[in-house]
Write a structure and sequence with these properties.
5 domains; eight-stranded antiparallel barrel; Beta-lactamase; 751 residues; alpha+beta; globular; eight-stranded antiparallel beta barrel; Rna Polymerase Sigma Factor, Chain: A; 25 strands
Length: 751
Amino acid sequence: MSDVNDLDLVREYADRNSESAFAALVHRHVNLVYSVALRFTCNSEDAQDVTQAVFIILAQKANRLRQGTILTGWLYETTRFTAIKLVRTKTRQQAHERAALMQSTLNDSNPGSVWAQLAPILTRAASKPPARQKTKFLSVGGAVSALRGRTCFRIRLGINPSPMRHADPVWRSRKIARLWFLALILLVGRLPAAPPASVPSDAEIKAILTRFIERDRWGVGIVVGIVDEQGTRVISCGKMDLGDCLEVNGDTLFEVGSITKTFTTLLLEDMLARGEMKLDDPVEKYLPASVRVPHWGAQKITLQDLATHTSGLTRDLEGDLTLPHLYEVLSHCRLERRPGRKAAYSNLGVALLGHAIELKAGTNYAALLRDRICRPLDMTSTCIALPDELRPRLAKGHGQERRVAGDFADTMLALPGCGAIRSTANDMLKYVAANLGLKPSPLQRLMEETHAIRIPHAFDEADLAMPWWVYHRQAAELITHGGSTAGHKAFIGFDKAARRGVVLLSNREDNNEQAMLPLGLYLLHPPVTHPPAVSVAPEILDSCIGLYEFPRVPLVIMAVRRIGNGLTFQMLNGAVGRDWFPVSNQEFADPWSENRLRFTRGAGGRATAVFIRPHGSVLRAWRVSKHVPESLFQPIPEPLDEKQCVPRPGSDLQGAWDLTARLWYWPFTTERAKLRVAELSPGLFRAEFDFPRFQAGNLPVEVIYHPPAVELITRSGAGMFKGKLKTDHTKMSGHYYISHFSLGTTLRRAR
């Protein structure tokens, strides 16, 4: 249809409901719509939503477009309007959520403790104004004193001076009193935070690791290292491989993944100190002349852009991780945003930085790492390519469901700067100690340079240094970085004020940051206090049980289960469970942080949504099922045999089914899949999905069947189906829920 103009395609779709005509329109204009949406939203996910919305609007208005309409102009204006409306809506929503969070924080706070800090300051301040103003000030102080037992109050600071009021001493004293009062309120937020609680004991940490591995089936082997002014300690639990008799310890080797980036930026600082590079140098200066590096107009990518994830390059290098492929990608790719403007995590960018350092230094990355970092810090077990003598100490990596994974670091030997280092807990403790200044080293000044915050609020909860992520907890500044490969997960971090550092290494991946990051932040800075746990009626706890889906987080389903007088929250992608305790009938607290979870209840008191408030933001998760089968958390058995899925009398569901799913407003997209169901015993099912388009097969599915209602839940958390089975047992109709989409879905028995 390349020779058909836009309006003819629109008419064909409007008159004949032609999917091919609409698909041709989308193919022609999707890049235009997406680029305009990205320009106005500055967020790739929002731009995708706007793009989809614009084509939905086009589908709805196809029969109303006037003859002579220039479709590209219409799409531009519609995209601009939709994007601006989305941004304004999100801004208002975030403001409401922040206000609700502040209100809840005031309600939850202990006013007595605040007043204990405020009272002496107020007394000192009250002694300084002149007597006449002091009277007015004391009246304000009395108002504060009267309110100290309340949990919420408002401050009105509206001052509307008339031309004569500036000479009125009474008005002036009132103004001064208001300003003092505002200063005091602001000062409360600046009062020094209480010191963090003590770090858990070795026995407590061991219990956490044991729960991860044995109850939640998350890890295989985990090592925790802690360093402070008293020295170092290492706590470990688990094995080097499933079924192995060798236990992990402080000398076990793990892949540390993206923690490698902190070594790369340290090497960059070393090159800067030697005068061999400059931060504002374009990276193309250090690459072969034949390599074309993308740029944004006249603005080029600098070394600092690469080190701070502001280069505008894509996140990953797709395909072979080789130098020829890197050069080819650079020569043909387009930047996603202007360099230096906004942070967006890029493995490709830091890999390019490491390669530029290699070329300028005239040697390979492994030699630079060994000579300039590992030897000065006595890190004898840290390496890129694994020598034969260290291979017996390497923990075997494991992916989802603890399946054995390959050695991911071996695939990155050509571009090691973004994630190819292997190391041990003992070596990483030396690295952290040097960053803290606990261990004198010639690298300390260079390390300090990498700790400086370059981009505030770069990510949801963190500022960005070079390339450290800096979290703020109760006025503490926690400098951290994580690492993840196909079979390993790592975390390092340190609190320079408390002079404490933490190292976590595991031979099991953790894609959704449910284990290592929360545990690492908890060990670095445990919460000072928590509200006391309260006893909640069992029926209230039971009313919270179910499966919840996050509308803005694709492919994530959370299971809520009851554990004693509390609840456990666990993602269905093999993540670790988190136990929360009740502080009221509606709210639960996380013992590892200051987060809260609050349930809202509909008819009958049953929970309909859970609100998660991680450090100022609010996430919503809607309940999509009341049932949480325990089999969801059991080991996944071997794939089904075709013979197990042959239809038989007495089983309503056993057999093969063809799935068809489509969005009612997205006429040119249809998803198809195969479902196999085996009923092993009455009411006990095993099932699997195959998605040919995504080349995904044998995806385990949990079946909940209460005739005629059917629920199919993917074990990976990639959505679920809810529907009903026809009386002749040949068809199921309902909806497939995935991310914030609801797809009309039909399953028919395969012939």
